[in-house]
Amino acid sequence: MPDILLNSPLLGLTITIVAYRIGEYISERFNLTLLPPLLTSCILIILTLSYTGLFTYEQYQIGGTIINFLLGPATVALALPLVHNWSILKKHYAILLGGVFVGTCSGIISVILFAKLFGASHQIALSLVPKSVTTAIAMGISANIGGIPALTAACVICTGIFGAMFGHKILAFIGVKNDIAIGLALGASSHGLGTSSCIPYGTLQVAIGSLAIALVGIATAIMAPLLITILN
Predict the structure, then answer these.
(1) What is the pTM of this model?
(2) Which of 27, 56, 96, 141 sits a CA distance of 20 to 30 A from 19?
């Protein structure tokens, strides 16, 4: 490839967009609900970097920094679900706030205990704490509490993919049928990807999931330092 292209932000941006579009096509064309476009695009980018030799990760990441920059506006945009669904929040505020509090605390405590149980270092454990928060907020939380933001981003993606693939199946298996409970569970545990899997099931699940994404992000930013101090 020409050096001017290898050292241009357009390289990383183009590859990311093309890989995601291919992932969307594969998922839609073959109706692969267990293979979200994000997972497919990650696999395609990894294979391209590993086996083609056309460019390095550092060259790809020049464009990746632009995508990281866009996480800032994405964080601010999380205020929109709160505004658009304010009536729902007021009507079910006790359930939503209670569920967010319990989900946030249990998620932080469990991931730290399991990390220590399996011998992970303290920094790795801290990197896992915001795994259920949307990437835009999770990386900031990770940096503030002493984690590794890049590792946190990878864990967030894996958590979201797992929730999107198996969330509804697990909830159905244990007998959860209420749309508010389902939307809250998926939004609180697997952020945007989990909430996106609610689209075929109705707008209420999506609305509740969207609210949970914003509320869990706020709650984790507040509760994580406190709970980490107590557990230590």
Answers:
(1) 0.77
(2) 141
